[in-house]
């Protein structure tokens, strides 16, 4: 009889623990989610990366906010930035936050310390200080859907930059990452140190002051519609220049090219130090022109 009583008590303890533990996990998850401000929403994340074999965790965070002064600034250390212009008045932000550490619990602890501010249109992430290749650290990849007409500054150290369908005063920079620019207009300028430039022009001419894009270590792929008008400048120190359509120039194309396309216009400047330059035609689309 005593053995039976002990068995019953042990069984009840197991049942209680079985109910309590999932509840504890739920409370821990709820506590983690509660750390986000009320205007943020967290969701599942594609966690297929390996981060060089380190244990890691991932979380998607989403929010919307307004730009009181029509100016957007995005600054991060580890992660890419993708900004797309749309017919909208607010900003829709999606942030993919990945944290890593020597164990999954350590990575989760790092993730719980990462916060993202959006006050006054200045997007900044904050978290534990660490090196990108350290045992503990985090990265944030940003995707923003914004009003087409705005002023923006975009900066990252380790990550690529993608800017699409924007019109305004745009400044961008990255140290380690490629830059993709598509269907832009306005006054656009920026650079990367280690990464290529992929530039796709749209419409029949550049609307605005012009474009200046530079890289130190990386090639340039420039695609221009066949009926485009602009003043084109491009050069490389260690690499050649290839043009896939007839143009009028003075002298020999080797490391520097400067010419007017069509009836001329705003200056399109793309320059690299170590890398080749490829210039080709791109199909024009009625939706590509920016006004």
Polypeptide structure, described:
With 291 residues, the protein is mainly β. It has two domains: 41-159, no CATH class; 160-291, no CATH class. Helix content is 15%, strand content 48%. The chain has an eleven-stranded mixed sheet. Strand 6 and strand 7 form a beta hairpin. The N and C termini lie far apart (88 Å).
Mean pLDDT, to the nearest integer, reads: 85
Number of strands: 21
Q: Name the helix and strand elements from N-terminus to C-terminus, one letter apiece.
A: HEEEEEHEEEEEEEEEEEEEEEE
Principal-axes geometry comes out as globular
Spatial strand order of the main sheet: 1-2-5-8-4-10-12-14-16-21-18
User: For the terminal residues, how far apart are their CA atoms?
Assistant: 88 Å
User: Percent of residues in beta strands?
Assistant: over 45%
Please compute the radius of gyration using only Cα atoms.
Answer: 25 Å
Total of domains: 2
Q: How helical, in percent, are the residues?
A: 10-25%
Low-confidence stretches: 1-34, 284-291
**Annotation field: number of helices:** 2
Q: Please summarize the sheet with the most strands.
A: 11 strands, mixed
What structural category characterises the helix and strand content? mainly beta
């Amino acid at each position: 009889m005593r053995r039976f009583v002990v068995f019953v008590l042990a069984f009840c303890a197991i049942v209680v623990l079985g109910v309590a533990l999932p509840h504890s996990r739920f409370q821990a998850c709820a506590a983690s989610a509660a750390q986000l401000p009320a205007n943020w929403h967290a969701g599942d994340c594609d966690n297929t990366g390996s981060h060089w074999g380190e244990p890691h965790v991932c979380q998607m965070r989403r929010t919307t906010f307004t730009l009181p002064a029509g100016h957007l600034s995005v600054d991060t250390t580890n992660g890419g930035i993708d900004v797309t212009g749309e017919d909208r008045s607010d900003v829709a932000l999606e942030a993919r936050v990945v944290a890593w550490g020597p164990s999954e619990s350590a990575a989760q602890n790092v993730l719980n310390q990462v916060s993202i501010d959006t006050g006054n249109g200045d997007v900044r992430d904050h978290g534990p200080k660490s090196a990108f290749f350290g045992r503990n650290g985090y990265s944030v990849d940003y995707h923003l859907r914004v009003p087409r007409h705005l002023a923006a500054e975009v900066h990252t150290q380790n990550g690529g930059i993608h800017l699409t369908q924007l019109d305004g005063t745009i400044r961008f920079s990255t140290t380690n990452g490629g830059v993709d620019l598509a269907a832009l207009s306005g006054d656009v300028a920026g650079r990367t140190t280690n990464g290529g430039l992929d530039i796709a022009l749209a419409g029949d001419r550049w609307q605005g002051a012009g474009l200046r894009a530079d890289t130190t270590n990386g090639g340039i792929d420039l695609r221009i519609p066949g009926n485009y008008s602009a003043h084109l400048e491009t050069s490389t120190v260690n690499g050649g220049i290839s043009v896939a359509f007839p143009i009028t120039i003075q002298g020999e194309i080797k490391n520097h090219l400067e010419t007017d396309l069509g009836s001329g216009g705003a200056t399109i400047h793309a320059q690299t130090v170590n890398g080749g330059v490829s210039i080709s035609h791109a199909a024009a689309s009625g939706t590509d022109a920016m006004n």
